[in-house]
């Protein structure tokens, strides 16, 4: 029944899914205790939840609609401790799930061991991509092809396979690579995974569930941490 | 027992009532499946919940304390798809409840079929009324007479029947009419419903319940959609 | 968008769906305030929730797996006030939603105005059908064809359209009619609605939603109350 | 940070932990999507939750305080489909998580692929151990040493390491083995794991978390399913 | 604003109020940390919640509709440790809130320091009163005058002030006193408090709140523990 | 067991603890009904929850990371009625818990009887301390020594006892005193309470619980209200 051992991460989606504060705070532990990274996608602008998700032991946070440098900075501020950001101290659950017993050690390594992904899904974000990538504390970008297709077609269509936008999507991966950051993406169509990987996307999320949990290949996360 | 068939909509109140993310995400479906519009009043500034409410099938969202054009634009951005706004794609539940099976059709009609009401309840908002009404994506204004009375009396009283403010309340309906937008209002005192309708208010909410659900006459919503 | 006005009731499913105590207590009001009967299907044997659902304003309760007279009596005890049953007094929310302002009047009419449906979905229940129907306080039976098909095929199949069981399903409607009780049924296949109605089923639930809310035609509930 | 890949299962504890219906229904998916078995410990006598946990995709259910054959039969009835038990059909989420696309195939294999553990933690249960083990549908026993020590000391002590009870604990593993069922146990003291394994316990749960999630070695579950 | 210092306990009502498992598990700590006893009224027959409430730090549990000796024994079994009852070990939160650091000491004193109240609210219960009072582990009886009035009037009225039942209510206090157990009661009408105290009721609950929290004078609880 | 009568307030922590909207809305009443002030610490920037906490009857709200005058003004706006702030009218639960029956009286006194604490926990906040203290509607400052130590050590350590920052912490109390506002602080180490009191801190919170509820001495709150 549970022949799913190939999956590498679980995303708890608070943007479009049914997850609430309650279910995310609880759900992270289940995934983490199962030995996999728990990733939380916060609602638009809810950077308070980004901090809380990390306190509870999330391995990564995805913030939708990071459209300019101010958005990116606010997101990084909420997810990285000073001096990099302004994350407040209180990672009670995360420490229990961690291998770092000492508080100062935990704090100094937390910024590196958890990842902040900025979603790039509008033309505005695309235009400011390099500036967003330059923000300290942003570990990578995450492309949302459905929203990107709406933006690219100026509201005419929702089509995560929209051919016209593919060069732009490839350009995002290249820019990320150049700036030494991660490139990730949701692939609604599993048939596109190979193509996205060729473009340079290290983390390609492919699954989805009625409760809006999404599975992703995290080999790239591991690599990032190892560096 | 259920001789309430005259009521036309149910508002789930997250601003002053007991509703949480969880109960709103679940409660919308119950109302929608009962064949009535589910309306959600979000907490002040929580535009992330405006998007989520629409994703879950809400027919309208009411945003309290829209006091200037920036507030109005942020609200419209969260509730309307591009190019009008910046609403992110993910209306899984809303599509199941909808009659539009095709995603692109759903998207193109969603902005018209769901309504965004900006609450006008401070002097500041009153002073900027026309600018707020001019914001694309704001479908109507909603007057909160209790807060308006506090503002009008400069903090001296809470009195939703305050006579001195009635000319201003009438002016709001007129301004809405002139700009081709909807005018709605909570009527704490059912005896005032007739007067408000004469002022030009199409949607007058009258009931309330310990769980802070509010009933409104939605004939006006239907009319808006028909246009 | 909300062209669903033909639907007549909403069932909040706690047996197989995602509903919890919290979401049911809240969700009932939304449906009731929309002017439609809220029906709650409780988990197997959770008669405490049957009482609570009625306290909160449910119009009917469906109890799964009522397999003998003891089950039926326990269910009736939880849903009907003395002397008929042992329902405890505390219908705070139900009274607010009701048209009966006086507590004693409310209590005396509540047993008649809310309905208790016993699910018949095993061979054991079928064998004891007349005894179950004879229990005072059981207002009707509700057939679950999926479970009934498992029982009828002795665990070989799940098939709500199983032809071999149709005579038994028809016999249930006849027995209900003879005892002056209601006959209801979930029709997974809308194509079977006509056939079930011909068998004598007054309430045929047909819809379903990912959150496990189910729609039913309640004309029969209205009739029952009018008698 | 997440170097916990050696763990094999996650238990969501509703008996003594903070888990509620809501958090369990949601939490199971997170664990299952992480590729590990989600196990739910239900509150005493709450067999309705045993069924719901399986509907949501739990791989196993642990029922505390199974003290006699009636308890064991009621538990098995709730967790196994007919003709073995009386589990009701509705595994919507479990099917999505499963590899069996066809409903009848899913049903026929579900009883074998999910496990029902009866907790043996009183003298009464110990005295009736063989009868409990003989109940069809009970896949194994699960020893709770803390409660067992209270019982064994007649209420004098709580001591999960109580030496006097160790022969009885060993006898439980032997009896399980003889009847071809699984033997599992919570080991509060990791130092005792080896000793328990020598006694014949295949699944020894060892971890615990403030939210009462417990980790176990599930190699035995896999073996059970393979047979 | 908070001039309520005279109140002595807070009851979280799961029978007729809005409380769920979630809100009770959380709410107990708030009351206990405020230095007052948290009392939980469970739903009818939900003895699993009685145990969980004590695990979380409740000072007392009230079980409605304890109508015979079997009900009383099942309630006592869930709330008292062996050898008196069958309460399972796991009082993690209660121990944190307690002054007993050692587990065995905590366990041996817990039965005495927490109270189990059986609600007497039907004629059947009244007829078996002495037998119920004789059950070890039942610390007192709690009268529900609203339900008792329905029973006494054979379903004719709900009237917590019903004069005809007053001699019976007085007899309950006398019987409790004779058996050395506590007598408690909800007084819907504060004007009756003096009369109830004269009858011998030590704990008379008088307040109520829309969220169904009830306040009671607990001087009697303190006395019970001091003995 | 409940010898905790010396404690004076209960803080429900939504920043780093497990509390959600749901549990806070419910939990406030339990604490308030126990006769103690309920204090809510909101997540960073979630001023919507500050308003809701007061609507539900909280006696005080603590806002973390108030780093400049804009933050302070936004916080005061959410917690004080006009003309002081922009708090919206809807204190249904707070009025039930209050001694002020008349709405206008309640409104006019609410701003004085509930307290807004701005957390000072960064260098930026320290540099702007006097400006923050000057904001009308900010009743006091609350020092978070863990975050302050991270800021003071420029991210090198988390140490709430950091000696180097103690002069700054003393300066905060002095500044508060000079501006006629309250000074409060969390003391992770109870041994430091005396020292903090000597510095001029009136409210020193000392306890903590796994659910992140924190106890504080509220003598200072009472004094503030009496003035
Ligand atoms: Mg997107
Ligand atoms: Mg308002
Ligand atoms: Mg069924
Ligand atoms: Mg146990
Ligand atoms: Mg009662
Ligand atoms: Mg802090």
Automatic annotation (TrEMBL), chains A, B, C, D, E, F:
<keyword id="KW-0479">Metal-binding</keyword>
<dbReference type="GO" id="GO:0005737">
    <property type="term" value="C:cytoplasm"/>
</dbReference>
<dbReference type="Pfam" id="PF03328">
    <property type="entry name" value="HpcH_HpaI"/>
</dbReference>
<dbReference type="InterPro" id="IPR040442">
    <property type="entry name" value="Pyrv_kinase-like_dom_sf"/>
</dbReference>
<dbReference type="InterPro" id="IPR005000">
    <property type="entry name" value="Aldolase/citrate-lyase_domain"/>
</dbReference>
<keyword id="KW-0456">Lyase</keyword>
<dbReference type="GO" id="GO:0016832">
    <property type="term" value="F:aldehyde-lyase activity"/>
</dbReference>
<dbReference type="InterPro" id="IPR015813">
    <property type="entry name" value="Pyrv/PenolPyrv_kinase-like_dom"/>
</dbReference>
<comment type="similarity">
    <text>Belongs to the HpcH/HpaI aldolase family.</text>
</comment>
<protein>
    <submittedName>
        <fullName>4-hydroxy-2-oxoheptanedioate aldolase</fullName>
    </submittedName>
</protein>
<dbReference type="InterPro" id="IPR050251">
    <property type="entry name" value="HpcH-HpaI_aldolase"/>
</dbReference>
<dbReference type="GO" id="GO:0046872">
    <property type="term" value="F:metal ion binding"/>
</dbReference>
<feature type="domain" description="HpcH/HpaI aldolase/citrate lyase">
    <location>
        <begin position="3"/>
        <end position="213"/>
    </location>
</feature>
